[in-house]
Amino acid sequence: MTERRGYHQFCGVSRALDIVGERWTLLLVRDLLLGGRRFSDLLAALPGLTPNLLSRRLKEMQEHGLVGQRRLPPPHAATLYELTPLGRELEPVVFALGRFGARWLRAPAADDRTDPRWAMVSLKRRYVGTERPLCAELRVDDLAFTVRTGGPTAELVDGAPPAPELVLAGPLRSFGAWIVQGASARALVSEGALAREGAAQALTDLARAFGLRP
Question: Rounded to two decimals, what is the model's pTM?
Answer without folding.
Answer: 0.93
